[in-house]
Amino acid sequence: MALTLYVDTARWRAHQKHVLDQFPGMIPVCKGNGYGFGHERLAEEATRLGADVLAVGTTYEAARIKDMFSGDLLVLTPFRRGEEPVPLPDRVIRSVSSVDGVRALVGVRVVIECMSSMKRHGVSEQDLGMLAAAIEDVRLEGFALHLPLDRPDGSDAVEEVIGWMDRLRAARLPLHTMFVSHLRAEELVRLQQQFPQTRFRARIGTRLWLGDHEATEYRGSVLDVTRVAKGDRFGYRQQKAASDGWLVVVAGGTSHGVGLEAPKALHGVMPRAKGVARAGLATVNRNLSPFVWAGKQRWFAEPPHMQVSILFVPADATEPTVGDELVAHLRHTTTQFDRSADR
Description:
about 350 residues; alpha/beta; six-stranded antiparallel β-barrel; 9 helices
């Protein structure tokens, strides 16, 4: 009895091929929990796609994945002087976002991150004059731009990249390769046409692995079902049942990521109103679970436990039975499954 990730493998791989066809030279990204699939699975898929580079989040991830993927590994987190040393092979490429970082990595393969409108990290235009001398001591793989997902000001992503290309060229820095994130396929084509001597390589994770929502599904197995009457006490905190129904114990708890939710950026009146409503219900211990039974998301009977959740199914619904599987709407990047199964 487990929380299972089901993968429609043929459909999932067809989507991967579609993305690869749109972004020639794409660099797959495998970071965090492997977008819900795990590092080993994504390393295998990247190899099957013929990728020569796999991007990972940290040096610790690179150390784990180096034996799963035989190509180059690009560490996306920028190097910082004084960081804990992690033994890594020569095929690992470090991202750098400062002149000081470049100077500290003598002989190392590096990608230099430029400060984009994300304003997260990167070298500034004022740093470019000092970079010309600093890159003499490293093996420069290229420059990179990590771009925002949304542009409410109406700005153009391509123009932002062009601006940086012009600055780099004016500083007489090499433009043989540019690594980019969060560009559309047509935007990449525009850039490649304008700069035919530069190779643009898109680093893609979410769109590649999670772009087809119908290709994957989480399901939790029903472990126990107990009938309760209105007023019966149950659970760790001995709350009272609000009405007749069933307590349904289903595989999937906090250790799997059930009940965990990342903050969301809300836009518009309706999403904000729904957020306020959910917060209000939570104050009276009414929390909607991600598990679906008989066509409806069911309420947690109490907060999820470490490995299971207890749901309340009212008496007017069909009674679940042990062994049934409930679809669970879970976020891939925060979920750890017990098992995966291809279908």
